[in-house]
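Support reply, case 0932

Customer input (verbatim):
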Amino acid sequence: MASSIFYTILRRAYHTRSRDVNRHNLFRRISPLGDPDNNVASVLDQWVEEGGKVKELELQRIIRDLRSRKRFTHALQVSEWMNSKGHFSFSPAEHAVHLDLIGKTRGLESAESYFNNLADQDKTEKTYGALLNCYVREGLVDKSLFHVETMKALGFGSTALTYNDLLCLYANIGQLEKIPDVFAEMKANGVNPDNFSYRVCINSYGQRSDLKSMEMVLEEMESQPYITMEWITYSMVSNFYIKAGLKEKALICLKKCEEKVGKNGLGYNHLISLYASLGSKNQIMRLWDLSKSKRKKQPKLNKDYITILGSLVKLGELEEAEKLLMEWEVSCHRYDFRVPNILLIAYCQKGLIEKAEAMLRCIVGKGKTPTPDSWSIVAAGYLGKPDMKKAFECMKEALSIQSENKGWRPKPTIISSILSWLGDNGSIEEVEAFASSFETKMLKSKEMYHALIKAHIRFGKEVDGLLKKMKADEIPDDDETKAILSSRQQNNPNPNTGDDA
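Our regenerated output:
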C-alpha cells in the first residue's frame, strides 16, 4: 500500500487523460495496436489515403491518451508523423512533449540532441522543463542542478514546476533528507508550494518516521488559503500513522480522507486498503457499499475487485471474498485473471491447494483461458505441500499457454525444484520436454543439465554429449555435478557406452 501511494504521489505528467477515447474513428484504429513494433505512422497514412481528415487537436488528444496509457513509442510516432508532414507547426509546448517522449523511448542522449537542435524561439520554459524532467528521471543530480541554474539565469527557474522536479529528483534517488531543504528554499524565494510540493515533503518525513515534522508540514498545508486539500494527502498520512501504530491519529486522517474522496474510485480503493491494515472488516464493507451508491453510473472495475478481495483475504475473510468473486464473475466486462488469482493465492497460503486447483479447473471449464501465473500459483502451492507430481502437472499447464503471454517468466525456484524432482523420478523424455518448454523464457541452467544428466544415468544412457553442451553454455561442472556423475558406477557399469552388460 505504501509503495503504491508513494509512486502515485511522485508520478510526473504533462498531460491529462482524455475521457472519451472512442469519439474518433482514427483513435479506434490506433488504440488496438498494443505492440510497440506496430508503427502508427502507416495507420495515419492509410487514414489520409482513404480521405480521412486529420485535425491537429485530435492528434494532440491521441498523443495525450497514449501517454496516459504509457504507450510512449506510439505517442512519439504520432508526434513525429505530425512534425514530418509539414501541415502542423509545433509550439514550444508540443516540442516539450516530443522531447519528453524521446527521452522515455530513446534515451537521454537523443533528448539532449533534440533540445540542442531546437530554434532559439522554441527554447522556452516548457522545453527547458522537459529536458530537466529527463535528467530527473535518470537521477542525474549534477546535470539537474546545473540545468536549473541555467534556467534561473534565463528567468525560467523560479516556478513550482522547477522546484517540484528537484523534489522528485531527491525522492527518486532516495536522498529524502534533502527534500526539506529544497522545500525551504522554494518558499524563501517566494515560490508557493503546490499540492504536489507539500505531498513530497510530507512523504519525505513520513518515510523517515519523523512524524512530528510531517504533522507540522500538514498543518501548514491545511492553513494555506490557496491550497485545496485532496484525499491523497490524508491517505498518505494515514498510512504513516498506521505503520507507526498510531491508530487514533490514523482514524482521524481516514475520516478527513473520506470527506474529500467524493466519487473517486482510486480514493475508495486506498481507504479500503488502509482499513484492511487496521483489521476493520466493517469499515471495508461499508466503504465498498458506499462507493457503489456514490458511483452508480460508474461500474466497478477489475482493480476495484482486486482491492476489496485482497483486503478481505488479508483479514482471513475467505467466505466473504468468495461471494464477491461470484459477484464479479457475473458483472465483469473483461475477465482479468488477476482477480481470481487473489483467491488462488489465499487458498494456497492456507494449505487449501486442492480447492485452489478445483476452482481454477472450474474456471477453465467455463471456457476461460487462464494466464500462466494462475497455474504457477497452484504449482507453487503443491510444491510447498509437497506434492511434486501435482506441481509438475500444474507447471506443464502454465507452460502450455505461455505463447499467449509473451511477457510471462516462470519463477526459477519452481522450475529448479521440479527439475530436481524430475531428474530423480521422471523419464528422459519428460525431462527433455519440460526443459525445452521454457528454454525460450529462461537461460539454460545448471539445474536443467543436472536433471537431464540424472535421468540419463538412471536409464543407462551416456552423458558425455550433455557435458559438452554444458561446457559450451559456459556452465561449470561443480561439486554437485561431480557427485551426480559419481553415481554412474552404481547405475551403469559402463557409463561411456550406456550398456548394461
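We compared this against your earlier run and they match. Two observations from our side: The first helix runs from residue 2 to 10. DSSP finds 29 helices and no strands in the chain. Please reopen the case if you see a mismatch on your end.
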